[in-house]
Amino acid sequence: MKKEIQTPSYQTLLKDFDSFITVRNYKLGRGGKMHQNAVTEFLMWMEENGVTKIKEVTSTEMILYYEYLITRPNKRREGTLAEQTIKSRLYSLSLFMQNLLENRTIDSGFYIPSYGGSETSKIRNTLTVEEIKLVYAYCENDLESALLSVAYGCGLRRSELESLNVRDIQLSTGELIVREGKGSKRRVVPMSDTVIESVRKYIHNERHERILNSEHFEDAFFVNMRGSRMRGEHLNDTLKKMIEQTNSYELVQKEITLHCLRHSIANHLAENHAGIEFIRRFLGHTEINTAYIYAIKNKKRNKVTSLFK
Description:
Blueprint: H1 8-23, H2 31-48, H3 59-71, H4 83-102, H5 129-137, H6 142-153, H7 158-163, E1 169-170, E2 175-178, E3 187-190, H8 193-204, H9 206-211, H10 232-245, H11 249-253, H12 258-271, H13 276-283
Helix pairs in contact: 1-2, 1-4, 2-4, 6-8, 6-12
């Protein structure tokens, strides 16, 4: 990698960032040099990869840069960069993005991956929109379509899928109610037209037939062949079967779980310019996770657009 930034606009951004960290006392001690070096390397990498305008940076470039960081050789010793170094670089980029937003250099932020050491493989354990469409195309019954629609399209946790009841599905308003999410928090999730249709078909057809086999009243949304509530493990096994039905070696190797679908919808919402506040509420986070740090110009969002129509 070359030693100096060539693009004039990037040189200006770096000077602005230097002023930004100086005013906020981020430049005290070794911190200032660390932040400057991190942003310099980031901008030079973008230059070398044909991105010469900061507004052209997308989640695709950020994921590629992330992969570069975790695999690039350490210049001071053998091996790759230390875990703490990678975390520091990503933190510096979050400060850089904050500066860009405050100066209105960009209208919305870009994706900044989180780093978890040995858990870095998790970045690959998500599905693209095309892969979601593929799994959806190979669904063999209404239950499978509904599971994919709700787990992905509504971003529910495994425990939330298990505890979901029919009364929580508001078809008339296009909303799904999570009555007790993580931390016992209630939230309302918008459903796309595709999700609504999948849910409607399942309720009126397959679920209705399964409930007829039940010896007691069952309000559970996802029910097994005996008409009883499906547990989280059974739901995960169902998803695994759905993945295998695609006959896609690449998909099977990803070892996708229900939680991976939740990460997938978060990524796709961000790519479609959903805002940090919308994603936080949609996922039911008390605070937005570092992996979902995206900034926005307009925080008023419409209902979730169908991403696998």
